[in-house]
Every structure is written in structure tokens, then in C-alpha cells.
Amino acid sequence: MRQHIALIALLGGIPVALGIWPIPRSLETGTSALKLAPDFTIELNVHNPPADLSAAVSRSANYIKTDKLEQLVVGRGASNSSAVSRAPQLKSLTLSLEPGSTVHSIMDEAIKEIGTRSEEYKLDVPASGESATLTANSTLGLLRGLTTFEQLWYDLSGDTYTIQAPISVIDTPAYPFRGFMLDTARNFFNVSDIKRTLDAMSWVKISQFHWHVVDSQSFPLQIPGFMEVSQKGAYSSSMVYTPEDVQDIVQYAGERGIDVMVEIDIPGHTSVFSESHPDFVACAEASPWATFASEPPAGQLRFASATVKNFTAGLLTEVAKMFPSSIMSTGGDELNTECYAQDPETQATLKETGQDLQQALSVFMQAAQGALQTQGKTPAVWEEMVLDNNVTLSNDTVVLVWISSMDAAAVAAKNFRIVHAPSDYFYLDCGAGEWVGDDPEANSWCDPFKTWQKSYTFDPLANLTEAQTSLVLGGEQLLWTEQSSPANLDPIVWPRAASSAEVFWTGATLPGGEPRNGTEALPRLHDVAFRMAQRGIRAIPLQPLWCALRPGKCNVDS
Amino acid sequence: MVALIPFPLLLGLVLLSHGARALWPIPRSLTTGSSAVKLSKTFAIHVDIAHPPQDLLDAVARSTSRLQTDKFQRLVLGGVSQDITAVHTAHEIKSLILALTASAPVRNLSEEATMAINSRSESYTLSLPTHQAQAILTANSTLGLFRGLATFEQLWYDLDGTKYLLNGPLEIADEPAFPYRGFSFDTSRNFYPVSDILRTIDAMSMVKLSILYWHIIDSQSFPLEVSELPYLSVKGAYSTNEVYSEQDVQQIVAYANARGIDVIMELDSPGHTTAISYGYPQHIACANKSPWATYASEPPAGQLRIASNATIQFAKTLFGSVSSKLHGTMTSSGGDEVNLPCWAEDKETQADLARTNITIEQALDSFIGEVQGVLKKNGKVPFIKSDMVLTHNVTVTNDTVVVVWQKSADAPAVASRNLRLIHQPSDYFYLDCGAGEWLGADILGNSWCDPFKTWQRAYSFDPLANLTEPQQHLVLGGQMPIWSEQTDPENLDPIVWPRLASGAEVFWTGATLPDGSPRLGPNTTSGTQVLARLHELRFRLVDRGVRAIALQPKWCVLRPGDCDL
């Protein structure tokens, strides 16, 4: 077992500026200065390297040149100047695959079925200036290692250096599903916003983009064969994602080690279908909305209808074809029964077929999941489909727990796999006040604001039995966009979404077995935020710069 | 005095389903019709003033340019193509004439904007007829004309380059209820480049804010260059790049003044001054002392040694140097959150107190007196934070303006001392609240002033609440502040806009909407229309490059009222 020297130093209160996020599972650092040679290169010792690996190497080389991040200490690293001037020069980093590995593109590795991906890597940076080495079993592992390598360096008057050589990392994630969810239906986001977000996600080794692409408010996704839905349901003809846009986003994500799980939320949250298919939607825009939906506008698919069921299965099939991922979600949150109780069409259909609402829902869900499975997808749903409804779901269904972190145990008791997305830890939109009109004294339903510190304390295994722990695939932070748009996307997401990236990389504890520690993490998270800002992401400052330069001095008890 | 049009006509606005939503703040008197009006391809603004001041001409040029470049489209279900016919046949306006009333003096806009706070004239009338090709803007001052231009710019929607409206003819007679409509900006916790401040000033002028209250320094950093005390910024700024040079300050003040905004600089003292210790350690007690929570309200601890003669001289030099170079009639010495244990445990301070045989409260009283004396000598009305008056009972000059910040309920106590006040209550107006604890190692902590102050909350503020009729004249207005512990250039716009516009309308319209109805609240029906107008303002801000947040899903924006509770 290797010693975790750097961690011990951090926990001992010695300010160490190592800016790696998420923290590697095994890390050794020294105290020598090392700087990059002016002609530093990254060499790819892989036969017939895939284009996306070569591109990743170029991006890394570029970030290392352009980051220009000064160390976050008083003086911004000036006290290192004599050590840096004398430091040995690192001429190269060599990437290679372990013997026997087969060479696939990063994207092919990233979109493999969850549980079968290889993200581990080994990185050695000697203090002497000898070539650094990065090895992995897959191109995806090499990408993760490159990301770590980029985070080792600071700038001092044009020198790119570390004062912690030698550095040795052996790393692998605790969970394969480390996600971020973006809602592009309440307000629209341009392809460029999504790509910029994917870049930032990849810098903290997030592996899964959960794309909540449509909802009751708008339907921006163009689906071949179902073009009328977006034509009538998008906010405007320019606020759409064309099939080409989707391919572009999926490719961009894949090249950065990110799989895209698209969600078509059904049968609730579907008011927008009434624009193109008014017959398919019960209680469409019915008033008062609060009786029929959790937020305006009301409207849900008439799932008891065979026509609607077949239409939905057909639409899901076409969406499944647009996304190469092996996982796809049919949502399923916040189904409102009053909407159907007051819908004459639904009541007539139920009477005709002799079914009750739950039986009809079960039939509908089987059709929906069947469509996904035919396309080779693992189906995902929100927790209510399992906990509140009595429907038969495929055994391999992945369940996203969102209402409360406490609900994970109930899902596990039903032996379904779990992705943690609890509102009480991970909702990035909470705390910004009520957005519903004419409600001047109200706050957000999920107050208070979820700080990075709160998210960081999340325990993926809380309340689960040992036997159930294998059901946890990971988790994600989420942005619902009632009050967000491209204007504030970056500040509301970053650096907070990095919290869960580390939680699900490191697991229930830090690599040494000690609990995760926000006090230790804060200086590293400052590094993340500042490096993101250098790269054009508008991440918020977590504290005054005075505090960022003096780790620990702005702790509540210091 | 401009004749105000009777209030009942205003109902025309409230009942309209579309068209007249664009104005923010809402004019005190407004009548609208239902005819389409557009600007001619050759539209021009003519200044009908002999020897017009250059800053007014510059403002006219900016308005003219924005009337061409603004791309904001009407927010309407089904899209703006439904307006094509109306625009095609719309009445054409060929020019806007700017004129001063007969006896009005011709002065620089900047001069009008920086006059004594109670002597400014911001009223204007704007007439946009549908029977002639000229619109007319009249005022008693160039500042009034500038406010009218801001209104005129907000009237128009874009359709393929044509600027039009659907609610002509319009008659507006407008003036603010309160002269002090401010934004307090902390540039010390985190630094903002000059360009961020200028962009903020532009956005402020869109909603007719009149004051930038610049909280320029604090314990964390001292970004202000003071030539007589050079080490303040040399040692106290975050870096040599994170400094406002005297030239920067002059540029910012001139830029603001030319946009109808006066700049009040706050040099917060005697607390919140740790950053002075980096250049002048002899003047600071308990600098960076631990645990900070014993000696300060936030880290780092450090306060001026108010009982020291040398420190008093130092403070007088600082205030004299800064206030003598600043245009305008107001300067603030801050004064919030002084910490008594800091001085109680400071040997130097205790020795000074023993020598002169006075208490710390007496020393504080004397220190404030010295500082206010310097401000008075430089022609400034002194501002001070409410705790100096309410917690410490410090003697202040009669013309002092008190910044009420701890809570809105403190205003009557200040008024009962017959001091003028501005409202900056943390329970309504603090833009930074609700973003979680920023202190480290406080895992489950929230912000001290939770919850988040929504635009709706801020908008419901009543400037005259709990004040007697004779006290009402003491209220100069108010301001919403951003404290920058968790804000910097990356999120400045989204955290400030469009919420800051709430305060702008509260202090423009006064205790009620122009028709006498409450602005928001359980028994009002105005919330829907107000939100619709605020959505428009938000999209106009984004159109002009200000990253204002979305207040609702666009679905709601296009359907006023459908997303009400």
C-alpha cells in the first residue's frame, strides 16, 4: 500500500497547493521544484492512435501552455522563484497503453455500458526531469490521466512549474456514473453553452451528461419522423436541437470521456405535446395549474390510450437511434392523478379496457421500456415509478433518486440500481427564491441553497446494507432551469458541480479511508474555480480572494 | 412643475393585454392608446437648445445608436410576425425634439446629476402623438431630458430592423418620488475591473438609478490608490493589477455622472480596515488576530486605532485626500460592525484611552467628529451606517445621512433622531443573501441573511413604513447592495440583474404604484403586470450584453399570469 503523503500533509494543516480535483485514489508527492521545458511535448506511444486521443493530447498541451494559473497563496508563488529558476526541466510526458490493451477511440470507451468502462490510469512525474509517464488500459484512462496532469502546474513569470515533484498517481473512480443534469426545456441553451459545459465537466472527470432535453414548457428536440412535436413545441424555430446538433453534442461529449443519457420525461411533464397532438394530452394547460401539475403548465400524456402508447413507443425508438449511449431515461416524475381523474377521455378508455390507472400505467411503461430495450438501451426512470406506482419495470432499470436522499434505501430494497440525484444535496437551482408569480414572500421549494460544502458531505452508501452497496452506480448534480438561462449557466453550476464529481470519484471516504473533509477540499476547489475561470468558464468565487490565498484563515473556527 | 395627468387614465395601462409593458420604472403618469407607431428610416433626435452641453449631445448620440442596434423583440405568444401588418401601416415618427422649459438653465448633465441630493430636477414630459411626425421631450433640466431619453428607448420593439410600438399615442409626465435611488457595490472582497463597473453603470442608467454607492475598500483588500498614502494600495491591494488608480476613479465618476449617476464613495471605518495594516500597521488594532470571530464580524479582524492621535491624523489625511478629489456632494465613512473586544485587548488603544482618560465610546465619538469635520471642510454631506447612531449613539452632524442596513425596522429609530436616511435593509435588499455560507469548515451553514431576496420581496418594500407623516421627508430613498464575498466579475451580472431594478422602481414610484395601489402583496392584482414588465427589462438587458438571469421559464414569459400562484 502506498502512503498518501500529500493528504497527510493537507490534513495536518500545512498549506499544500496541489490542485487535483477529484483527488486521486492514490497519490504521492514530494517537495522538489520541477518546470516544463520550453519545448515540452506530450508523446503518444500508441500504435494507430484514434483521432480523439490525438485531439485530447493537443488540448492538454494547449491548456498547459495557456492556463497561466498562479498558485493561490499570498504572493502568488513568488517565494518559489529561486527554486523554480534552478528546477530541472521536464521535456516530455509519454502516453502508452498497458500491454495487451486494444485500441479504441475515447468515445467508444466512454459510451460502453456502465460498469464495463475502464477509467484507471497511472501517472509518474519524476523530480529529475526524466520523461513523465502515463499508462492506462484504455484511451479513456489516458484521457483521465491527462486531465490530472494538466492540474499539476502553476505559472510564475512564464515558467510552468510544480513544487511537489516527484508526483506519482494511481487512480480509478469509485463509481462509473458521475453525472451532471441540464434541463434545456424550461429555458433554452445553445449548443455552444452545452459544449462549454461538457468541457468543464471533463476537467473534473464527470462521465455522464444527463440531458433533460424536453418538458412541459418546450420541446426543443427535433426527432426524425416526429418533427411536428418540436415544430409546434419549441420556443421558436431557432430554439431547437437538430439531429445534427445532437450528433455534434454526443460526439463532443464522447471525445471528452462523457456519455450522454437523454431523458424524454413521460407520462407527466408533457403538456407541450398538446401543441402538436392535442388529443394525446389530458388537462393541457388546465387551470388552476396547481390542481393538475407540480408547476405550470399542466398536461400529461393520455397513457391509457393505445394510440398514445404506440405513438410514444415510436417516438422513443427514434430518439434512441439518435443517441449511441447504452442508457436512456423515460423520466416518470410527479405524475398527477387528479389530471386523469378529471379527464373524460382517460376515464372512458379505462372503462372500455376494464383497467385501473395503475394497470394502464404498467402497460404503458412496458411499451416504453420495450422500445428502449429493442434499441439496446438500459432504461432509467425517476424514483416515483418504483416507489409510488405499482408498475412492472425491467429488472435492469436504473432508478434516479431525487425527492430525498432518504429514498435510496427504499429503491435498493426493491433491488434496483441507483443513481443519487437527491434534491436535499444536489439541486443546483434551490435557494434562488420563488419563481412562480404573485408570491412575493415565498422561497424556492427546496430551500436552502445547496452549498458545495453540503453536496460534498453526501455519502453514497448511507442507509444501505453491505449487500445493497453494489446497486449504487453513482450520482449527479442537477440544474433545473426555471430561473437559469445561458446568462447564468456557468455561475450557477461551477464550481459547485465539482463537489459530486469528487464524491463519486472517491466514494464514501477519502482514499486513505478517512471521511471526506471540506476543510481540506476548499483550497483545491478554489484551484478548480480559478482554473476554470482561466479557461473561460464563469465559475463563481467561493470566498473573497483574501481567503483563497490563505487556506484555513476563513474557516468558521479559525 | 410639470402637470401630472390624472390617475384614472393610468388604468389604460394596467388593463392593456399587450404593448405598454416596456417601461421600467413605471412613469408616475402615463396614458397610452392602441395605435401602431414606428420610427422612420430617417428618424433623428434634435436638440432644440441653444449651446447644448456636450454630455447631453453624447447621451443623444448613444440613444440614437441604441435605437438602431437594439434587437429586442416583443415577448408575445405566437411570435412577432403577427405584428407585421400593424407595423406596415403604422404612423411614422420622423423625429424626437428635446427642449428645456422656458426658464430652465442650460447646465451639463453631469453637473445636474451631482447637485445636492434634494435640489435635482429629474422630471420630464414625453409626448408621442399619432397625428404628427414629431415626438416631444421636455424637461426643466438636462438631467430630466436624459431620464426622458431612457424612457423613450424603452418604448420600442424590433421587427427586422424597424422599431415600433403598438400603444400610441403616448403621453408621459414623470418624476421620481425619491432622489436617492442607488446601488451599493463592494469592490474589496473581490476585485472588479473598470469595465465591469462601467457596464453596471450603463445598466443602472437604463432603470434611472441615480447613485453608485461605491464600497471601494474593506478588510480584505484596499484597491484605491491614494497619492498621499501610497502604501494603502501598494501593500493592501490584491495585486498591482487590482487597483483603481486616481485616473480610473476619475474616469468612472465622469462616466457615471454623464449617465445621470452620482458617485458616493464609502471609506468604511473605523471597522473593516484590516487591509490598511499591510501598508500602515501602526494604525490597526487586532490585525489578522485569531480567532477572527472574537474580533470581527468576518475574517480578517482589524480596526483603526481610534484613540491614537496619529491614527486620527492618518484618517483625516485619508478622508481629506479622497474627498477633495471627488466630484459630488456626498461621502460616506461607513461605520458598521465595530468590534469592542478588538480595542479592549489592544494594548496601544488601552494606553491611549488611559492617557486621555476617556472611554472607547467617547473615543469613537471623537473620531467620527474628526472624520465628519474633514468631510464638511471638503463640502461633503457625510453618510454613516446606522449602527453608529443606533448601537453606539455617536454624535453626528445634523446633515448626516444614515444608511439603515441591519433591518428595515430600524428606520423609525433613525427618523426619531431627526436624521435623514436611506433604506438599505438586509431583510429586503441584500443581493448576496441566500447563496450559502462562504466561511470554510461550516458544512451545513447558510448565509447569515437567508433567504435569498427575490425581486418580489425587494419590490414589496414600503419606504414610508412605520414613519410618521412629519418624518417622511427624512427619507431620501434607498439602495440595494451587493457584498462580494461570493461574487466577482464572473457572476456580477446574474446576481445583480434584473433584481436591482426592483429597488429602482420602488424609489422612483414611492410607497405605492402611481395609481395609489400597493406594488405587491396579498391583496394586489398588479403583480402579473409588474412581472411582465420586468421580463421585458430583463430581455432588454440581455440584448445589451448584461447577463441578467431568467426570472421564469420562457413559457411563462409569453403568457403573463399563467404562472402565477
UniProtKB/TrEMBL annotation, chain A:
Q: Tell me the GO BP annotations in alphabetical order.
A: carbohydrate metabolic process; glycosaminoglycan metabolic process
Annotated Beta-hexosaminidase eukaryotic type N-terminal domain residues: 20-152
Which reaction(s) does the protein catalyse, per the Swiss-Prot or TrEMBL entry?
Hydrolysis of terminal non-reducing N-acetyl-D-hexosamine residues in N-acetyl-beta-D-hexosaminides
Listed Pfam families: Glyco_hydro_20, Glycohydro_20b2
Q: Which UniProt keywords apply?
A: Glycoprotein, Glycosidase, Hydrolase, Signal
Q: Which residues form the active site?
A: E334
Q: What does the similarity note say?
A: Belongs to the glycosyl hydrolase 20 family.
Check the record and name the PANTHER family matching this protein.
BETA-HEXOSAMINIDASE, BETA-N-ACETYLHEXOSAMINIDASE
Instruction: Give the protein name, as stated in the record.
Output: Beta-hexosaminidase
Annotated source species:
Obba rivulosa
TrEMBL record, chain B:
Signal sequence span is: 1-22
InterPro entries tied to this protein: Beta_hexosaminidase_sua/sub, GH, Glyco_hydro_20_cat, Hex-like_dom2, HEX_eukaryotic_N
Q: Which residues form the active site?
A: E337 (proton donor)
The Beta-hexosaminidase eukaryotic type N-terminal domain is annotated at: 23-155
An example GO biological process term is: carbohydrate metabolic process
Q: Which GO terms describe its cellular component?
A: membrane
In Swiss-Prot or TrEMBL terms, this protein is called: beta-N-acetylhexosaminidase
Similarity-based family: Belongs to the glycosyl hydrolase 20 family.
What is the reaction catalyzed?
A: Hydrolysis of terminal non-reducing N-acetyl-D-hexosamine residues in N-acetyl-beta-D-hexosaminides
Report any Pfam family annotated for this entry: Glycohydro_20b2
Gene Ontology MF term list = beta-N-acetylhexosaminidase activity
The record's EC number reads 3.2.1.52
State the UniProt keywords alphabetically: Glycoprotein, Glycosidase, Hydrolase, Signal
Tell me the ranges covered by the Glycoside hydrolase family 20 catalytic domain, including all copies: 178-510
